[in-house]
Amino acid sequence: MIVRGRSIAAALVSWNMGFFMLDDLFQTIWAQLAIPVGPVRNPYRLMQLSTLDEQGWPVSRTVVLRDADARAGALYFYADRRSAKCTQIAVDPRVALTALSPCGLTQVRMEGLATLVEDIGHRRRCWSAARDKTQALFRHGAVPGQVIESPEVAYERIQGGFEHFAIICIEPRALEWLDLTRPVQQRARFLRHEGLWQSSWLAP
Ligand SMILES: Cc1cc2nc3c(=O)[nH]c(=O)nc-3n(C[C@H](O)[C@H](O)[C@H](O)COP(=O)(O)O)c2cc1C
């Protein structure tokens, strides 16, 4: 990996000045992906995750980016273990992610492999750190996607929640960045090969 440690502030300075070095751009993208919940906004907090269903059709939905590990090249999301996306990942781990910055002019997209984190320690740490609001999403007894008579029915049976709590880990093998904020639009591609990222500019 070519990612080095870098402060969010330094990354954002480069962001505002424009990029001339692909290495700088790559580090800044990961620094932004890794911005935790707090005063600095993570522009890519909401992502569209696409999986493949049992017939091979792509299925997309919005998910919250919970964590990003630049060194490992991994992104983490929470989901209900019983949801369609988790079932689909278990059958075919190929996924795509797309995120649009709040200004609507910068896009990050990735393709890679997804796995469900089985490390119980990791799951417990994330569960304990999750806010009540997040934990509550996993407590209802109804299976996500199940047909119900009315919305309230889903909340009739309350459970602990942890048993449904899954962490999806996605390791991108390709990452593409597009910036339409400048007169000269910038599009860059980063491909991971045997642990190293190779970069190139692309025509937008
Ligand atoms: C703003 C927003 C954030 C969401 N975040 C998540 C999330 O982090 N994890 C998740 O499983 N679903 C999340 N959802 C719900 C999914 O988009 C989707 O409807 C649900 O997970 C069922 O997807 P599936 O049946 O394809 O598995 C979010 C929806 C919205 C509108």
Describe the structure.
This protein has helices spanning 8-17, 22-33, 84-91, 120-129, 132-136; strands spanning 46-52, 58-69, 74-80, 94-100, 106-116, 165-179, 186-193, 196-202. The longest helix is centred in the N-terminal third of the chain and has 12 residues, at 22-33. It is elongated and about 55 Å long. Strands 1-2-3-6-5-4 form a six-stranded antiparallel barrel. It has one domain (8-202): Pnp Oxidase, Chain A (Roll), CATH 2.30.110. The protein starts with 7 loop residues before the first helix and ends with a strand. The protein is built from five helices and eight strands. With 204 residues, it is an alpha+beta fold. 22% of the residues lie in helices and 36% in strands. The structure holds flavin mononucleotide. Flavin mononucleotide is lined by residues 46, 59, 61-64, 77-80, 83-85, 144-145.
CATH A-level architecture: Roll
The CATH homologous superfamily:
Electron Transport, Fmn-binding Protein, Chain A
Q: Please tell me what the overall shape is.
A: elongated
The DSSP helix count reads 5
Largest pleated sheet: 6 strands, antiparallel, barrel
Indicate the mean pLDDT.
91
Beta-strand percentage range: 35-45%
Number of strands: 8
Instruction: List the bound ligands.
Output: flavin mononucleotide
Uncertain segments:
1-6
Q: What is the count of structural domains?
A: 1
Structural class of the secondary elements? alpha+beta
CATH topology (fold) name: Pnp Oxidase, Chain A
Q: Give the strand order, joined by hyphens, for the main sheet.
A: 1-2-3-6-5-4
The CATH class: Mainly Beta
Distance between the amino and carboxyl termini: 25 Å
- Work out the helicity level: 10-25%
* Rg (CA only): 18 Å
